[in-house]
Every structure is written in structure tokens, then in C-alpha cells.
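Q: What would this complex look like in 3D?
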Amino acid sequence: MTPLLSVRNLSKSYGAQLGCNAVSFDLFPGEVMGIVGESGSGKSTLLNCIAGHIAQDRGQVVYDTRADGPRDTVTMPEPERRMLGRTDWAFVHQNPRDGLRMNVSAGGNVGERLMAVGARNYGDIRDTAQDWLGRVEIAAGRIDDRPSTFSGGMQQRLQIARNLVTAPRLVFMDEPTGGLDVSVQARLLDMLRELVREMGLSVILVTHDLAVVRLLAHRLMVMKSGEVVETGLTDQVLDDPQHAYTQLLVSSVLHV
Amino acid sequence: MIEIENLCKSFILHNQGGTEIPVMAGASLRVEPGECVALTGQSGAGKSTLMRMIYGNYLAGGGAIRIAGVDVATAAPREILELRRTTLGHVSQFLRVVPRVPTLNVVAEPLLAVGEPRERAMARAAELLTRLRIPEHLWGLSPTTFSGGEQQRVNIARGFAFAYPALLLDEPTASLDAQNRDTVLTLIEEAKARGAAIIGIFHDIGARDRVADREVDVTAFTPGLAA
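A: Here is my prediction, written as C-alpha cells for the whole assembly.
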């Protein structure tokens, strides 16, 4: 099987400060990979380099494109990479404000991404937007309301709808449940799990919440000071951690 | 069906002075289709550790665990997940589910995961919940709020929903009343009859005698404990 994404020797530093160092991995279709580590471990830098939001210093990010097969997105012309970002890739930010347009209606937020891939019929766009709001459990009556009038959980669900409406194959998520209270988190996790399975999405999920990766991720990558220190099946890494840092991370979780 | 060869394992506690605890050495074991093998040995001898290694939940230190052509000791995460989806079932002592998901769906999930039509998956889940005496008015609720015994039975229903060719059972009859214990033992007998290879831990000696074809004392694989 061809991996959907192959990252090779990806490195990024901020002056003398190391962001991430020589990271390599393959992500296969339908696979959810969690990246865990404390703040400053380089997990967000890595995610943003792969997604093309930050320029890396070295390394390749080879994506299996629908049209031309595996291509290095780092050397790909900018317009092509932007097109990927609007169609086949999606990015769910921790703060919905970074992924939504706050002064555009909920329906408009979803419809906008559809229009970016060429949808033109207003009725169709509105119907699809309506359908997606339903899938993320936003009441039909709220379609013309702006996200600024939504609760944090609703905004996050809207951001997910906006991202998934174009049926992407690869989704980047940066702390998608961070900043939400636990009851809202459980609902969002359940929804994400369903969508990932239904749509066969490949996901790279960055979080510091081990409970979230246990529920969502198939496999884990543990980062510390910019380096990958351990990888493996999610439950194996959490229940039988091998590296000193992972052991510390797992044993530091407070149980209620 | 399940073939374990020269399996070993140590835990290294990096944050406690790098203490190395050898817990298993030279474990070898074969289970044929339709056979049930009970793991025995005192508490701490490594029964659960062995079971967890077979499921891929603990990393093997060396040796091989071959199940349906996959060596769990060296397989990639996605190969182990595929094995768990289609071949290797596990009934643990504790139910771990996403809050909010109704009991009926929790039980049907392993069937949906192998592409069983929704209607048939739900019907099979309902049949198992009925046999295990979970009242129908609870099926629409999340099992997270259930009593310990009810959760255990939901866990068993989930474990037996799909006809896995290989099954790991960790104390399947613990905390069950006589009637439900009998139902679970019947489920195990049915699984054997259809050809499942089963490895179980049974502290309940009556249950062990009824379903197990032979016993393997893991003390023989415990460094420092072997006679």
C-alpha cells in the first residue's frame, strides 16, 4: 500500500532554538496518528511544517495526490499547495476563531469552502451546508447566524463542518478539544470518531491530552525537545511506555 | 492458530533508578482452533502480562507471537489493528468506551468494523444483550453509568459479537451471578465449537474445569520463580 503521506527528515529551527529535528514517518489511508508531548516539544511546529504553514529548513513531505500520485509538497508550486489546502487537506485549529470567518454566517462559512472548489449553485451550496450543520449537530435554525453568537463547542463543530465539507483525505488537528469543557469534549470526540470512520479520513492529531489520543488515535508519536522519542500502537505506548520521557508523561496523568 | 515462541519481557523503570524487572523468559505455547487453554499461576506470575503481550498491548522484549500469519512481537501498528479487527478478540476486565455512545452500539461496533450490515449487527447485539440479561430499557443508554456487573456483561457481549477466530479472555466470569456465569460459559463453549482458539485466565476453578482443555502454568516462564 502507498502511504498517503511520507515525511522524511523534516527539520526546523528558530535561530538557535530547535523546533523539530529529522522527523520521519509514513501515514496510511484511514490512519489516525497522535503526536503528544509537553508544550515546546515541537509538535505544533511539526504539524505546521507538514501542513505548509511554516517553511521547514530541511526534509520532504511527500503526499499521494489524487491526480499525479506522490509529490513533494515542499517543492510544489505555491498555487498547487494552496489548492491542496482548500480541497484534499483540512486544518482544524485549537481556537475556532483561527479557522472560521467570524463575521460570515454559519452557512456561509461552510459554503465558502465549497465555492473554493468550484461549487456555484446557491441552492446546492445551501443544502450541503445545511446537511453538514446537521451532521455536526448545529440546529438548522442557526444557519444564518454568525459564529460569534455560538458557544465555544458549537464554534468548534462549525469549524469541523467547514473543513470536512470538501471531503478531504488528510486532516490536521491542533488540540481540537483544547479549551472546551469536558462534557462538550466528549461529544466532540464521539463525533470526530464517527466522521473519521465514515469518511475514512487520515488524521494527524496534535494534543497534550492523553485521554483524547487514547480514544481517537490508532498510533502515537511522542516528542520531546524537538525529537521523536517513541512511536507505536496507541494503547501499547500508553500502557507499556518504553522511553523515560513517555513513562514520566503517562505516570503524571491525574486520575479522577 | 496462536503460536508463541521463546517470548521474553522486562520492564525498565527509567524514572525509578533505571530498575530492570525481568517478568518473562522463554514463554512458548500453542493453541489450536477449537481449543481453550487456561493460564494459571499465582498472582504476579505474569498471566495478564502474557495476555497483554499477545494482544499487542505490551511490547514483547523478544521472541515471536504468531497469529494468523502476523507476528505481533514485530508487526507495525496498523497490522496489529487489522489483526484485532478481523482475527483477535479480547474481553478485558474493564469496559473502556466513549461516553455518550449507547450500549447497543457499543456491542455492535466490532461487527460494524468488519462491514456487517447495520441491521444485522444491531440484531446480533440485541440477541447477546438479551442472553446476558441486560434489560432492554438500558440499551439506549451509555454503559458508563451501569453497575460493575452490568458493565462486565456489556463487555462480554461486545467481545462475543463478532466470531473472532482467536479470543483472549481475562476473568470473564468474575463478578457474575450464577445464571450469567452459565451464559458466559455457554458462549465460550459455542465459540470453541465454531473453531475459535481461546486463551483465558479463570480464577473461578469451576469455570476453568468446564471450558478449558488444558492448563499452562506461567510460573515456568517467570524468571526467578521457575521451579
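A: To summarize the key features: The mean pLDDT of chain B is 93. Residues 55 and 208 of chain B are 21 Å apart (CA to CA).
Q: Very helpful, thank you.
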